[in-house]
Specification:
6-stranded parallel β-sheet, 16 strands, alpha/beta, 14 helices, 2 domains, 5-stranded parallel β-sheet, Rossmann fold
């Protein structure tokens, strides 16, 4: 891939910059602007070289969301950029975007002279603004895009040991390829979040009313692997109470919401002896008031001497809330893109820039 540093002359050039400002929002209010801030170095670099920028982003799934709150926040945190930066509008409102329509890509390309991808977090999508535009314009990778590849590659090549992989979150089907991969590459694979429920069920434990994925992923064979570490205790919701109990003592009317206190202590010991930690997804259902263990472990990882690579939108939101953004080696802006890159070593958006 070519870096934006390799562009020879940017003066008065129109640059289409694909960013991902699809940030968490509630009732029209931005909860976390981490992704917006991470795109600023690329945008400021291009602006200082005299380029006129057109930012391309999506918000929401179908393009119906207005970019107004995003634009307002962007110009609030980058006041000096107003005269040279404009927004295209929600790219997903155009039918050709998600269909990767080449005619749409060609039409879009006529708006600029150069294309820059700084949206790693959406580069697992074969959409027009990701893989179509590079067919028609000289194309380059932005700084955040390069940082993602450089840092995530530390968890796939020349790995430091002991290496701890912490898998949390919900989407079992997207995490299972990573779990399989890191059973080969890592020294320890800790399972938390809703992923845990499938593993406990495979062990024959009662999981009550807990969230579970119905797919058959050959978990019984995976849990035989000595590298797999499952929590000894969990936090369950029983009626209106939160109770800490052994993982094999859950009742039929209870819901597993978090890992337990004893497990936090044992995971802390592993963190302290690890040289590399890769973590994707929260350990508990924090939106239901069960984020205590995730916060504790985030603090412990942030204070450890290990190289730490953290990914997944939910966990990044918690890091921002805790003001720990500068305490880890690297925080990925990606969710699905991070998972796909770690599993496969590339993405459609990376291939399109080569």
């Amino acid at each position: 891939m070519r870096s934006i540093k390799q562009i020879k002359n940017l003066k008065s050039k129109k640059v289409l910059v694909r960013v991902d400002f699809n940030v968490p929002m509630k009732n029209g209010r931005i909860l976390d602007d981490f992704r917006i801030r991470k795109a600023l170095p690329t945008i400021k670099f291009l602006q200082k070289k005299g380029a006129k920028l057109i930012l391309i982003t999506h918000l929401g799934k179908n393009g119906s969301e207005s970019l107004k709150p995003i634009i307002k926040r962007f110009f609030k945190i980058s006041k000096s950029l107003k005269s040279q930066v404009s927004f295209l509008g929600n790219i997903r409102k155009f039918n050709g975007e998600m269909k990767n329509d080449l005619n749409f890509s060609k039409k879009l390309s006529k708006l600029g002279d150069i294309y820059v991808n700084d949206a790693f977090s959406v580069s697992h999508r074969a959409h027009a603004s990701i893989v179509g535009l590079p067919k028609y314009l000289p194309s380059y990778a932005g700084f955040q895009f390069e940082e993602e590849i450089k840092n995530l590659s530390k968890a796939t090549k020349n790995i430091k040991h002991p290496f701890l992989f912490i898998a949390g979150g919900v989407k079992f089907s997207t995490k299972i390829p990573l779990i399989r991969k890191y059973l080969k590459l890592a020294d320890y694979v800790f399972i938390g979040g809703s992923l845990l429920n499938n593993f406990l069920k495979a062990k024959g434990y009662e999981i009550g009313q807990s969230l579970i994925d119905d797919g058959d992923y050959g978990i019984k064979k995976i849990i035989e692997n000595r590298k797999i570490i499952l929590p000894e205790d969990v936090i369950v919701k029983s009626g209106n109470k939160f109770i800490n109990k052994k993982a094999n003592k859950v009742k039929k009317n209870e819901i597993i919401l978090d890992i337990g206190n004893e497990t936090v202590k044992n995971l802390t010991k592993l963190i302290k002896k690890s040289k590399l930690i890769l973590w994707n997804g929260p350990l508990g259902k924090y939106e239901d008031g069960a984020g205590k263990a995730t916060r504790k472990i985030l603090k412990i990882v942030s204070e450890s001497k290990a190289e730490s690579i953290i990914g997944g939108g939910d966990i990044v939101y918690l890091i921002s809330m805790m003001k720990l953004e500068n305490k880890f080696t690297f925080i990925s802006t990606g969710g699905g893109a991070t998972l796909d890159f770690l599993a496969n070593g590339t993405l459609p958006g990376i291939k399109a820039l080569k």
